[in-house]
Amino acid sequence: SGPSPSMRGIAFPPPPGGDEHPGESLIPDEHAGPKHGQTFNGVVYGLLNSVLLIPVMIGFASIIYRDHFFKDSLPILTKLVMVSACIHQLVFTISSSLPFSIGQVQDAGLIFLSSIASSIVSQLKDDATKTDDEIIHTVIIALGLCTLSLGIALILTGYFKLARLVQYLPMPVVGGYLAFIGLYCGEAGLSMMSGIQVDGPRSWPHLFSNPDALLYCLPGVVTGIALLAILHRFQHFLLLPCLMVGINLVFFAVLLAMGPSLSDIP
Q1: What is the mean pLDDT of the segment spanning 91-95?
Q2: Cα–Cα distance between 237 and 49 in angstroms, integer?
Q3: First to last CA, the chain
Q4: Single pTM value for the model
Q5: How many angstroms separate the CA atoms of 189 and 225, rounded?
């Protein structure tokens, strides 16, 4: 089980004081510069990647297993997604031929993985002969096989040089698909914050008619808007990682000041 094996390249700008020029490889060439400098840059970029990806993977797990059936098993399923993402990242880092970018797990396959998981649950949960563990095992195996099949298809697409066929997809189709990914992830975020199943326009009234649920969503929505505004206003490769760490520090500081433990939070 795990996110789709499709990759996204994120190019970090060179650290202050570096002599790289815009457009050049951000991962030092093996013949250029001191060995310790290359190692230091690699460690820095790895730490930045981990700060960004760990909360993203937690969110991806919540989206894939968004069905209420997985609620009690979500902690272990989240760890499984984290392991899957680590394997993906390791393979990409070792075997990638793109030295100018840092590959990361992408969100494009979340819709399909989530739909597969929810469909299997809806078909099996009413079967009295199936236990919850058997249903979860079936979901995990199915997601793994589907992800493997997609990986093989991508390898064959590259081997036979069929990627040019993508240009025949109409632009409105591509744009609509990308827009729906954003809507899907947004609804999943509201579900995570409110504890209410939000999976389409028909479920929105349940959210907006619940004052407590809206109150739970308020900090996350405000934080998201603030992140968007800050990143639009300022440009620095350390900004987003620092903001991600700062958000967690503020959360636990407020929690410590208010007194309740994590187990007391709904």
Answers
A1: 83
A2: 11
A3: 28
A4: 0.73
A5: 14
